Amino acid sequence: MTEMTQRQKYDLKRKLEELKTCKGRHTELISLYIPPNKQIFAVNTYLKNEYSQSQNIKSKTTMKNVISAIESIMSRLKQFKQLPENGVIFFVGHKDNSTNSYNSKSWCSKYFYDK
């Protein structure tokens, strides 16, 4: 497995600290952990199923935000021809700004499975 540099470890730690503070309404924040042995095709199939299921959400705002997050993951997943040897994780969703406004956040790391 590829070793992380000190800078990469620092950046990962900072991002994880930022993620701890994220709050969203309902189910608008999505975490997707993909191990290195998983096929991209299988993950895409899973995401397409979740996409179709999310169209049953009653709240139009929540439904729109969840669909947007799933689409974001699907588009970022297309950038990979194969998964990194350490796997990959995605954190996507609409983050509450505590002023009744929301920001779309997206973060991807390929170092999750690095030991």
UniProtKB/TrEMBL annotation:
Any Pfam family matching the protein: eRF1_1
Parts forming coiled coils: none
Entries under SMART domains matching the protein: eRF1_1
Name of the featured protein: eRF1/Pelota-like N-terminal domain-containing protein
Domain eRF1/Pelota-like N-terminal stretches: 1-115
GO molecular function terms listed in the Swiss-Prot or TrEMBL record: translation release factor activity
